[in-house]
Amino acid sequence: MDGTSGLPTRSPAPELIGAGFAYESQGAAILHDGLNLADLAHVLDLLDRGIIPHEAGVALLRVVLDASMEAVGYDPRDGEPYNSRERAFAAQIGSAAGWLHAGRPRREATRLAFRLHLRRRTAELALAAVELARALAARAGEYRQLLFPDQTYLQHAQPSTVGHYLSSFAYPVIRDGRRLLDVFGWLNRSPAGAGCVNGTRLQSDRVAMADRLGFDGVIANTRDAMWQVDGLVQLVSTLASLALTQDSLAEDLEIWASSEFDYVALADEYTRASVLMPQKRNPYSLAMIRGTTGVLIGHVAGTLAVQKSPSARSDNLIFAYGEIPVALEHARRMTDLTTGVVATLTMNAARLREELAGGYSQSTDVAEELMLSGGIDYRTAYDIVGAAVRRLALEGRGAGDLTPPLLDQIAVEQVGRPLGIDDARLADALDPAAIVATRVATGGAAREPMGAMLAELAGDADALGGAARERVDAIDGAEQRLVAVARRVIGEGTP
User: Fold this and answer.
1) Distance separating the N- and C-terminal Cα atoms of the chain
2) Measured between alpha carbons, how far is residue 274 from residues 146, 257, 287, 304 in Å?
3) Is residue 174 classed as helix, strand or coil in its secondary structure?
4) Where do the H-state alpha helices sit in 308-377?
5) N or C: fewer beta carbons within 10 Å in the chain?
6) Which residues pair with 151 in a beta bridge?
7) CB 301 within 8 A of CB 98
8) Looking at residue 318, what is its pLDDT?
9) What count of other Cβ atoms lies within 10 Å of the Cβ of residue 130?
């Protein structure tokens, strides 16, 4: 007996309802608005081509326009969300609801709804990324002259400015914003009319549906249209990338906001008190940024895992319906939070000056000066300065105590002759402000390159923000026009 063909003759098992349909129904809130739009466009298309009786079409348009989450119910016992909608519509308009299936499988409807949801949320996240980049650039402008010892491996590296440091995070945020709009381009192609794998005889032109829903065009291959997932991988990867930039900043700030460092203070609104220890003000916002990053990395792994499937299967996308919108929401809230943290943080200028004075971040510049004025190679100069730093550190002194006699003494020990470095030239090599002023090449912390970078960031943010806003406005316009056409057809709107 062939058990693979024909309709099932029994109701779904309770275990299937609990483990399958219930899971899919959890995503109904995400898909609901998109399913309404997809249904409206589909019914209007059927009416335009004379496939559906006008009376049935009007009844369907009316019931879809009135379809709320509560009205549909989305009961897992009906099956997945599409089946719940069919049950709710049939209860209101009888067999006329059956016309909704003409030339369209359930998966096509949910694919459309999914893309309609994701394209809006992706463009909105790009707008949020723009606001974060603007906040970073604004604070970079405020702190462009505030000197501090920049770090690698949590150790003093070279003198720089807080402005230069903060602007380094704005660039990857902008790049990820552009990547989001690239993914938007993938999302904003229509699978409507694709059927299951090879379309339908009922529709010879898929472009009309795409235009009605505000898509830029159709996905060329109907089988690819129904089952492609590469853009979803790109989307979640971009979310993780955007999160990683914020995480790096948050991890730095968490260390720097500690009493042990005291480089920066978070605004009260972004902290939380300990319920036990009254002296503590915990950087709760930074913990949430760091934790959300971990969750988003998990979404990347989860998305990749479920996409490992033979072609033309439903499981990969069924699970994506629940996972990817949640990841987008996490990324949006996290980005808004980071923007608030950046916009309100305060740098401790006195503490940063103290660290510069007591550390050795000028060592590279001193070694370069020894090389230039002492007639020695850089490796030798490096060894001499390194020995001097070790000696000063053992004596509890800082780089400001480095003198020409000390350098000459070590040079005699290592190369057999004094170098005779000039006092004034050594003083310049030890002055953090003078050091920063030498960083005049593109991308450096000196005044001119910093000004150029801030102008570039402002221009990039405006361009990205304008492009993202244009896409959100286009979505709004398309959806409003679709609803208006449906209302005109049923006589509720103005012709």
Assistant:
1) 58
2) 32, 16, 14, 39
3) helix
4) 315-344, 349-358, 363-374
5) N
6) 156
7) no
8) 83
9) 25
Mean of the per-residue pLDDT values of the chain: 93
Return the amino acid letter for 196.
Answer: C
Give percent of the chain with pLDDT exceeding 90. Answer: 78
Question: One-letter amino acid identity for 122?
Answer: T
For residue 190, give the H/E element and its range.
strand 189-190
Which pLDDT belongs to residue 494? 40
Task: With H, G, I as helix, E, B as strand and everything else as coil, classify residue 460.
Answer: helix
Question: Could you tell me the two tokens for 471?
Answer: 């896409």
The partner residues of 159 in beta bridges, in order of sequence, read 149
How many C-beta atoms lie closer than 10 Å to residue 124's C-beta?
Answer: 18
Q: Is 148 helix (H, G, I), strand (E, B) or coil?
A: strand
Three-state secondary-structure class, residue 449: helix
Give the integer Cα–Cα distance in Å for 95 and 50: 18
Q: Which tokens is 453 given?
A: 């970078």
Fold of the domain spanning 107-202+216-354: Fumarase C; Chain A, domain 2 (1.20.200)
Please report which confidence band the pLDDT of residue 495 belongs to, taking 50, 70 and 90 as the band edges: very low
Distance CA 150, CA 365 (A): 14
State the DSSP string of 374-418. HT--HHHHHHHHHHHHHHHHHTT--GGG--HHHHHHHHHHHHSS-
Quick one: how far is CA 219 from the chain centroid?
Answer: 25
What topology does CATH give the domain 14-102? Fumarase C; Chain B, domain 1 (1.10.275)
> Rounded distance, CA 358 to CA 385, Å?
16
CA-based Rg of the chain, rounded to a whole angstrom? 31
Q: 197-224 as b/e, with b when 16 or more CB fall inside 10 Å?
A: eebbeebeebebbbbbbbbeebbeebbe
Q: 3-state DSSP call for residue 281?
A: strand
Please give the model's pTM, rounded to 2 decimal places. Answer: 0.94
pLDDT, tens only, 415-432: 999 999 999 999 999 999
Query: pLDDT for 76-97, tens place per residue?
Result: 898 888 899 999 999 999 999 9
Q: Which two structure tokens, joined as six digits, stand for 87?
A: 């049950």
Q: Which of 127, 58, 156 is nearest to 359 (CA)?
A: 156
d(CA 468, CA 114): 19
pLDDT of residue 2: 59
User: Nearest-CA neighbor of 362 among 449, 262, 436?
Assistant: 436
Would you give the distance in Å from CA 330 to the centre of its chain? Answer: 9
CA 86 – CA 106 distance, rounded (Å): 10
- Cα 410 to chain centroid, rounded: 52
Helix (H, G, I), strand (E, B) or coil at 149: strand
| 28: helix, strand or coil | helix
The Cα–Cα gap between 147 and 136 comes to 17
Instruction: State both tokens at 311.
Output: 């072609």
